[in-house]
Amino acid sequence: MTQQEIFEALDLSTTESGVFAGDWMQGSGEMVSVINPATNEALAQVTMASEEDWEKVVANSVETFERWRMLPAPIRGDYIRQLGNALREKKEALGALVSLEMGKIHAEGEGEVQEMVDICDFAVGLSRQLYGKTMVSERPNHRMYEQWHPLGPVGVISAFNFPVAVWSWNAAVAAACGDTVIWKPSENTPLTAIAVTKIAARVMEGSGFESVFSLAVGDGAGVGTWMSEDRRVPLVSATGSTPMGKILGPKVAARMGRTVLELGGNNAIIVMDDADLELVTRAVLFAAVGTAGQRCTSLRRLIVHTDIIDSVLDSLVPAYEQVPIGDPLEEGTLMGPLINEAAVESMMAAIRTAEDQGGKVLTGGKKLDRDGNYVEPTIIRIPAGADVTAEETFAPILWVIETDSLEEAIEIQNGVDQGLSSAIFTESMRNAEHFLSHVGSDCGIANVNIGTSGAEIGGAFGGEKDTGGGREAGSDSWKAYMRRQTTTINWGDDLPLAQGIEFG
Ligand code: NAD
Questions:
Q1: Residue 182's closest CA among 395, 350, 14, 20?
Q2: What are the 10-residue block averages of pLDDT along the chain, 504 residues in total?
Q3: Domain with CATH 3.40.605.10 in the chain
Q4: 3-state DSSP helix/strand/coil percent for the chain, to nearest 5?
Q5: Among the residues of 269-422, which ranges form H helices?
Q6: Which of 89, 327, 349, 475 is deepest in the core (most CB within 10 A)?
């Protein structure tokens, strides 16, 4: 699809407002240029929200919340069903816009929209399953149970690399729970957010609940900070880098607000000497090169057993050299550009640092000589413990580290501050179970014979340590979007006290 076809299909123009509060507002903040990372040319201009706009967005969200929470949850679920259907219809165009604005290939852009559809389906089911527990009371003729109530407007801060899916993991679940949602997308990818908000707005049009899904485009210093400090937003779900989480988390905590933090990763695959090497090559390629290494779950460290390290590299290096790099919207491309020039520079700086720390570039290592932010996918063999491998460089660099035991491999894997995704390749049940045990991987995601990226929405997604501890999407992640209430009812004619206390 061409830019014009994509814009037409999604009802976008080259000048857009980034503020939706039940209605599109003019937006009185600064104007930002949206840049195509494949050419570094401007795609459109978007107005950000000013503090005055933010006030309107929150006020409308609070007012809508007070009515939205009164709808029976399955009726809220029906709106989410319609949202899922509307996204299904726009899958190709929205997936293409993700590629145009963010640079991931079209198959991955469409995959992201499919995730939105999947989480909508999940949330429709969830709207009939917001279960609480019933407990036995220690007091006679008493009944005890817990129930879950909606929380309020939920702030969603998203990163550039999953410009639409992350919103939907939060928004579909939060809306089923009875919350309203205020989205602050990455300032690098506001167009996809505007397109999604237009789709949602059409679904909600005329219902009186248009402000369930609102939008305030802005940066961290503006909307990000106003949202963090605003008591009317009881939960901020923030996805992005660890430094961002370290600024935002304390601000929300200082007002006793809640956070769901989904921050940086430094993901590893351990390859044992009994691994199926064909699976390893395919999994590593997708996990390390997919999305040009710009997934939070991208494979960064490959920790390989001494006995097979040569065979692994013999198959991986030529595979890397055949990766078609180019326009993400062109068929056949497997790797698109990085998001901007700063990302290219930070990749090149990490490669220089690695060389200073004993790293040897086995393939790649260079910027491509053409327009756009294109780089070569890179493999660097490096000693365990090199400082550069402890950082998350958001680019397609794979550190290959040698090990001679599972225990040491796990120590290397866990020896970084982040704790998002991890995997082991082995045919041994003992190795696999050791890796999954409580002395194994310390990450939020631990896989066997599968790469580190490409999670399904049915599981709870997130990681430990500096990754922030939050969980989004499936399983019981919905509980973060509601408040729990424990209720005890006395249906007897006496007033027995808990713990057998006699009081007068
Ligand atoms: P980033 O931290 O630069 O920005 C993320 C979002 O936070 C943006 O919307 C940004 O405007 C906002 N922000 C920045 N400073 C803020 C502040 N002080 N207060 C409030 N908001 C602020 O990250 P990015 O470059 O857009 O994305 C890449 C990063 O995101 C990587 O570290 C990646 O691992 C991480 N990520 C994590 C997950 C996960 O689920 N764990 C998913 C996707 C991306």
A1: 20
A2: 97 98 92 97 97 98 98 98 98 98 98 98 98 97 98 98 98 98 98 98 98 98 98 98 98 98 98 98 97 98 98 98 97 97 98 98 97 98 97 98 98 98 98 98 98 95 98 97 98 95 91
A3: 3-263+468-485
A4: 40, 20, 35
A5: 277-289, 309-321, 341-356, 406-414
A6: 327
The residues pairing with 261 across neighbouring beta strands, listed in sequence order, are: 238
Q: How far apart are CA 237 and CA 259, in angstroms?
A: 5
Question: Any idea which residues carry the catalytic annotation?
Answer: 262, 296
- List the CATH code of the domain at 3-263+468-485: 3.40.605.10
Residues of the chain with CATH 3.40.309.10: 267-448
* Beta strands, E only, 199-275: 213-216, 235-239, 258-262, 267-271
Task: Describe the crossing of helices 406-414 and 429-436 by its angle, rounded to 10 degrees.
Answer: 30
Tens digits of residue pLDDT in 203-235: 999 999 999 999 999 999 999 999 999 999 999
Q: Is 275 left (phi over 0), alpha (psi -120 to 50) or beta?
A: beta
Phi-psi region of 484 (alpha: psi -120 to 50; beta: other; left: phi over 0): beta
Is 241 touching ligand 1 by the criterion CB < 6 Å?
yes
Answer for the pair 446, 436: CB distance below 8 angstroms, yes or no: yes
| Tokens representing residue 396 in the block | 């397609």
Task: Confirm or reject: Cβ of 157 under 6 Å from ligand 1.
Answer: yes
**Total-model pTM:** 0.98
Cα of 243 vs centre of ligand 1, distance in Å, is 8
Tokens linked to 341: 């020039």
Ligand 1 geometric centre to CA of 184 (Å): 11
Ligand 1 touching residue 130 (CB < 6 A):
no
Spatial contact of 198 and 13, defined as CB atoms under 8 Å apart:
no
How far from 179 is each of 126, 148, 390, CA to CA, in Å?
Answer: 14, 12, 38
> What count of other Cβ atoms lies within 10 Å of the Cβ of residue 276?
14
**Ligand 1 site, residue 161, Cβ cutoff 6 A:** yes
Q: What angle do CA 401, 342, 265 make, to 5 degrees?
A: 40
The residue written with tokens 């104007």 in the block is 31
CA 209 – CA 233 distance, rounded (Å)? 18
Reduced to 3 states, what is the DSSP secondary structure of residue 125?
Answer: helix
